[in-house]
Each structure stands twice: as C-alpha cells, then as structure tokens.
Amino acid sequence: AVLSLRASRPASSHCVTQSGGWKLLFGSGTKLTIETRTPSDPSYYLLEKDSTQACLATGFSAYNATDKEPLFNQTKSSPTRIEHEATFDKVVLVQNATDCPSGKGSASGECATEGFFETDEKINFLSLTILGLRVLFLKSVVFNVIMTLRVWMS
Questions:
Q1: How far is CA 42 from CA 10, 37, 82, 103, in A?
Q2: Where in the chain does DSSP place strands (E)?
Q3: Is the pLDDT of residue 12 over 50?
Q4: S-S: 44 plus which of 5, 68, 103, 127, CB 3.0-4.6 Å?
Q5: Helix residue spans in the chain (DSSP H)
Q6: For 31, which DSSP code?
C-alpha cells in the first residue's frame, strides 16, 4: 500500500490521527510515502574460482537475515545493498564447500548477467572524447619530438 500526503495550502499543517491517540503533523509541502515490503529469505550460492571458494547470500530483505547461519554470523562483513535495490547481499570466504548452507539457491550453474549492465550514452560519449584527446596529445608529442630532432641535426 502506498500513502501519499501533500499540503494543498502553503500556510496550513495537516494532522493524521492513528489509533492510540498518536498524531502525526505535516508541514506545508511535506510529502509522506509509505510502501510495504514483502519479506524474503536469502538464497545461498557457492562461488568457486581456482582454489578460492565463497558463499554468497543474496536477495534477502532483512538486514540481519543471515545472522542465524553460523558461517555468516562469524564474520565482520556487513550486508550490502545496491542503490535502488530492495534486497541485501553478503559474501563470505569458505574453506569447505559444505560450509555454505543449502537454501533456495543452487550450488552450481552459470550466473546469468544478461540485462544487468546497462550502457549509458553520456558515459560512452565522454570515454570516446577522452580517447580522442589522448590520441591528439600523443600525435602532438611525436610531432614535436620529430621537429626537435630535425632542428638539432641541421
């Protein structure tokens, strides 16, 4: 459910009364948005590269959802959340593959990254501009060195 309040007159304040006698006062121009979040449990994945193994807990909505797992409870790392995402992720290095808890996630398989990385036209244009300026600078340095060598030889 989404609740939005906006002040219609600049000089007035709005009052919302809750059960139990609580009053919430909103000043002019104040907007309140309340969104409900559906709770989700973490999915666990075992990640392997050469001899390094890590256990990834992903897709959980509560900050301390991994605290009930002893592997994640022992580490000092904190869950992270990507900007504009509703869920947290946490990763821990493991010694044995059996240490990673089995949950909704699978312990093997390929990760699909299609659609995750989006290109930005502005960043692409700026990168191309910087590359062009570097090439132009390199050409001017080479030209100056060649002209200096010609002057010294004559």
A1: 45, 15, 15, 8
A2: 3-5, 14-17, 23-26, 32-34, 43-49, 52-60, 88-94
A3: no
A4: 103
A5: 70-73, 121-153
A6: -
Buried/exposed 112-141: b ≥16 CB within 10 Å, e otherwise: eeeeeeeeeeeeeeeeeeeeeeeeeeeeee
Q: Which residue has the tokens 């449990």?
A: 41
Q: For the chain, how many residues are written?
A: 154
127-151 pLDDT tens trace = 999 999 999 999 999 999 999 999 9
What single-letter amino acid sits at 91? V
Contact between 55 and 90 (Cβ < 8 Å): no
Residue 75 pairs with which residues in a beta bridge?
Answer: none
Rounded-to-integer distance, Cα 70 and Cα 78, Å: 14
- Which neighbouring-strand residues pair with 16? 24
Q: How far apart are CA 1 and CA 19, in angstroms?
A: 18
pTM over the 0.85 mark: no
